[in-house]
User: Which sequence fits this backbone?
């Protein structure tokens, strides 16, 4: 999705500037949230909370999904959509903005300069770290809105207010350290693969 949007947003010289990269990342993140991430994350969070309860009611993936749909309808798989859109949109916007900024800085006036995969990995890890610090609060809110106790909150704003009121501002950054290590490695690998795949595709079917 990002590649599709970025091809549209590039200027006449074929360059994608930092601001347009941010908007393309935002668009890609919102599309991911609505089409894939929200239903999958909602189901995952419900399963985790259910299995940690004293009396689990989901015996397996398909049986659990059937129960969620039967009790709550398809809407039950889209709990916390607003929070997910905000989280995923900001996530991708930050990552692609940072990655494009670093990439443009490294390339300078030579757009054909070869970027070593290790440098791409370092840039990706930096982009991942930026996204963790930038949207962990939204991730915390999203997780609460998709859990089995989501009924306690009226909406996304109420969820944020309740967390702040009852647990303090530090609660928005719970799990930051373990998430930081996982995300940095994950994003570094993803961007290396992304760049290599785009490079191969450019040889057989022009994408940039």
Assistant:
């Amino acid at each position: 999705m990002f590649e599709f949007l970025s091809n549209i947003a590039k200027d006449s010289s074929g360059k994608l500037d930092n601001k347009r990269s941010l908007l393309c990342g935002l668009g890609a993140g919102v599309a991911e949230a609505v089409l894939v991430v929200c239903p999958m994350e909602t189901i995952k969070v419900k399963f985790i909370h259910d299995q940690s309860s004293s009396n689990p009611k989901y015996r397996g993936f398909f049986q659990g999904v059937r129960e969620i749909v039967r009790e709550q309808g398809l809407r039950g798989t889209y709990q916390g959509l607003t929070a997910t859109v905000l989280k995923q949109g900001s996530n991708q916007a930050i990552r692609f903005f940072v990655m494009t900024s670093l990439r443009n800085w490294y390339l300078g006036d030579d757009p054909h300069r070869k970027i070593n995969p290790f440098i791409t990995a370092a840039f990706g890890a930096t982009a991942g770290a930026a996204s963790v610090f930038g949207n962990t609060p939204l991730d915390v809110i999203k997780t609460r809105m998709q859990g089995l106790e989501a009924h306690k909150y009226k909406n996304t704003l109420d969820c944020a207010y309740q967390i702040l009121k009852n647990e303090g501002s530090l609660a928005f950054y719970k799990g930051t350290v373990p998430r930081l290590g996982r995300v940095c490695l994950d994003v570094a690998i993803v961007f290396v693969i992304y760049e290599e795949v785009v490079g191969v595709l450019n040889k057989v079917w022009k994408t940039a």
The radius of gyration is 19 Å. Residues 128 and 159 are 25 Å apart (CA to CA). The first helix runs from residue 2 to 9. Helices lie at 2-9, 18-51, 61-72, 81-107, 117-146, 156-167, 176-204.
